[in-house]
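Severity: low
Component: inverse-folding endpoint
Summary: output formatting inconsistent between runs
Steps to reproduce: submit the following structure tokens with default settings.
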């Protein structure tokens, strides 16, 4: 089953809630193409979700893992070609995490933007896991000698940290880690909220009207587009410029990526449209996409025994491959 490609790709998603159109457009839509010329690891990063559990019990993970896997399959990830696995099924992630954690400074971790914003928003919920979150990500990636990581823009800083820590280790102990490159798409790297187009569309957004979930019913999703924030220009002007037209630009990006038409083609098409007509067109495009992907999702989601088999096979291979490499890491540090 395993292909013999030299290029190694790694990526993952936290099963922390329902997946969003942002997850899809920012990264998942690209994943399937990489499978044909690279060895791909698609991880379901369940341990990262525990960073939300300082005071509350998390009891949704089992289902959420199966949901996430079904979305991976719906996006065209093929378990015959790629390695799909759950992070906590490969214990070496946490072993390497400890080693790399001992090489990461408090200062650099506490300066991470995501950590700082959590500290600001919910200071009482900040735990060590949140601070060390990028170290676990680095371990996920470096354990497989990854060349390329596929992510959206919000993960860029964590990826730069991964590169830094890999270089640091190599410098001290001698070259062992591959320094991974980062693939962040140009368009779609940061899909914004529909009610607040200045903020990222996120699974954990408190206002659900900001977010199109991949599992939203068609009616709900279209209502969210209908009520999305544009602006009050009269006559309406539909063109791409995120700094002066953030809401319109966000909808144009969504429409462009889902319809595979360039932004300039869409700008011409929508030139004399009212905002209502524009939103109706975006809705039509979104509707087609959601119907197609949800059909696939439900097809995969209903066969739980098959889903468990995919994960079992994925974790078997991920364990095997990481064990071989981890022996070399141990040797380097004499443990
Ligand atoms: P997570 O689960 O927050 O997001 C998964 C992926 O979706 C991208 N993304 C977006 N892209 C564009 N617009 C948006 N609004 C948007 N929202 C999310 C993210 O950039 C990401 O690529 N820590 C990671 C999971 C992880 C990981 C890894 C990723 C764990 N280990 C190793 C890569 C490599 C996370 O929480 O992603």
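Observed output (run 2 of 3):
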């Amino acid at each position: 089953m395993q292909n013999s490609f030299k290029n190694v790709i790694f990526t993952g998603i936290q099963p922390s809630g329902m997946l969003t159109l942002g997850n899809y457009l920012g990264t998942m839509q690209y994943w399937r193409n990489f499978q044909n010329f690279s060895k791909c690891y698609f991880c379901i990063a369940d341990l990262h979700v525990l960073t939300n559990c300082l005071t509350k019990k998390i009891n949704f993970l089992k289902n959420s893992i199966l949901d996430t896997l079904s979305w991976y399959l719906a996006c065209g990830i093929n378990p015959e070609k790629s390695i799909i696995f759950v992070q906590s099924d490969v214990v070496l992630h946490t072993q390497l995490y400890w080693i790399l954690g001992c090489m990461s400074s408090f200062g650099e971790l506490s300066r991470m933007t995501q950590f700082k914003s959590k500290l600001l928003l919910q200071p009482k919920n900040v735990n060590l896991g949140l601070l060390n979150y990028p170290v676990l990500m680095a371990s996920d990636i470096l354990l497989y000698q990854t060349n390329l990581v596929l992510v959206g823009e919000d993960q860029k800083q964590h990826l730069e940290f991964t590169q830094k820590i890999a270089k640091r280790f190599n410098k001290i102990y001698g070259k062992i880690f591959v320094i991974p490159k980062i693939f962040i798409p140009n368009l779609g790297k940061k899909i914004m909220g529909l009610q607040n187009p200045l903020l990222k569309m996120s699974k954990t957004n408190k206002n659900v009207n900001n977010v199109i979930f991949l599992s939203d019913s068609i009616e709900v999703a279209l209502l969210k587009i209908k009520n999305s924030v544009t602006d009050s220009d009269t006559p309406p002007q539909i063109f791409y410029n995120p700094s002066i037209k953030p809401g319109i630009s966000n909808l144009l990006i969504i429409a462009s990526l889902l319809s595979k038409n360039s932004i300039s083609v869409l700008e011409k098409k929508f030139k004399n449209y009212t905002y209502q007509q524009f939103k109706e067109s975006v809705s039509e495009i979104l509707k087609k996409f959601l119907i197609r992907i949800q059909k696939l999702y439900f097809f995969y989601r209903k066969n739980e025994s098959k889903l468990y088999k995919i994960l079992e096979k994925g974790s078997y291979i991920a364990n095997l491959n990481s064990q071989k490499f981890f022996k070399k890491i141990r040797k380097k540090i004499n443990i």
